[in-house]
Amino acid sequence: MTRNEFDLIRDYFARQPVSRRDVALGIGDDCAITQVPEGCQLAITTDTMVEGTHFLATASASDVAHKALASNLSDLAAMGAMPAWCSLALTLPEPDEAWVAGFCQGFSALAEYFQVQLIGGDTTRGPKSITMTLHGHVPHGKALTRDGAKPGDWLYVTGTLGDSQAGLNYVLGKPVTDEARAATLINRHYRAQPRVAAGQALRGIASAAIDISDGLVADIQHILKASGVGASIDVTQLPLSEALLADVDSYETAQKLALTSGEEYELCFTVPEMYRGTLETTLKHTGVTAACIGQINGSQSLQLMADGNPLDWTLSGWDHFKELDSDRS
Ligand code: ADP
Ligand code: MG
């Protein structure tokens, strides 16, 4: 491979749809130079996606780009940060122009929507992988963290849960019976909409927050552990989409999917009683729904409930929780 072929790929990335005023120097020099707004702190997050591990070789380049950026945007959303700048390390087995063109198309669409500017990166040869770093701003001291949940706080999730896993099941070969429904769920898997506006709206309201990337019961443990608290979840309050309910053989299957489905990129957060009213009015402005699914308590464990009765369901994320539970006692 000649250097020129790599230059060609860099050319794709040099054509940026977003041009921010706080970028003094973007792609093209040895470093990018940016200006953090007065009174703000930087929030920085990185995700790596390796072909065969984090995405299938059959996934379209555009979907892969969307997922890479969406997962980083979701991390910023969970901190209440406003996205700004992105850098991209791309490793490709060969300089595949068609793949790069598709990748740039998927990236640019989402980047434009959230006004994220690609300010640099690196392009190397090797097994296909994508490492993306996203920078955002958050007013000084106002970031949402995982360690602020208190007994009595209410537990919420945005959107609906379980759809991403249901979509992945089709990607992995589940027979399609209803084309439109399968398409809806596959779209939920590949094209998650990170809750960026909702995350910022939660500043000053939520006592703790996290985004759901490994599944609700797996991710909520991070809040419980960091905050030194426990929680109960009422599974009858889990928000389920019509598509998911139509897709499963029983209500319980849908509830279990909602508890364990990863890559949902919804937010899970806790709210003190006194801010519940503010939460409702604030979220209305963002157009995002949030469901109250339970409450934080002082028990140091997670309990699933249905109509006031404890459940003893076995879930993949549940076992993991028991490990975490034992190493903190
Ligand atoms: P250097 O040798 O100084 O690291 P490169 O030749 O690797 O420079 O890159 C030239 C310019 O292109 C740099 O500004 C770099 O940030 C940018 N760049 C390279 N690859 C990418 C990429 N995949 N995405 C965005 N910018 C990139
Ligand atoms: Mg380089």
From TrEMBL:
It holds the Pfam family AIRS_C. The keyword Magnesium applies. Mg(2+) 2 binds at residues 47, 75. Pathway: Cofactor biosynthesis; thiamine diphosphate biosynthesis; thiamine diphosphate from thiamine phosphate: step 1/1. Mg(2+) 4 binds at residues 30, 45, 75. The keyword Kinase applies. Transmembrane segments: none annotated. SUPFAM superfamilies: PurM C-terminal domain-like, PurM N-terminal domain-like. Keywords: ATP-binding, Kinase, Magnesium, Metal-binding, Nucleotide-binding, Thiamine biosynthesis, Transferase. Its EC number is 2.7.4.16. Residues 28-136 form the PurM-like N-terminal domain. It is an enzyme of class 2 (transferase). Residues 150-304 form the PurM-like C-terminal domain. CDD domains: ThiL (cd02194). It catalyses: thiamine phosphate + ATP = thiamine diphosphate + ADP. Mg(2+) 5 binds at residue 214. One of its GO terms (molecular function) is thiamine-phosphate kinase activity. ATP binds at residues 121-122, 146, 213. Mg(2+) 1 binds at residues 46-47, 122. Gene3D superfamilies: PurM-like C-terminal domain, PurM-like, N-terminal domain. Reaction mechanism of ThiL seems to utilize a direct, inline transfer of the gamma-phosphate of ATP to TMP rather than a phosphorylated enzyme intermediate. Catalyzes the ATP-dependent phosphorylation of thiamine-monophosphate (TMP) to form thiamine-pyrophosphate (TPP), the active form of vitamin B1. This is Thiamine-monophosphate kinase. It comes from Salinivibrio proteolyticus. The gene is thiL.
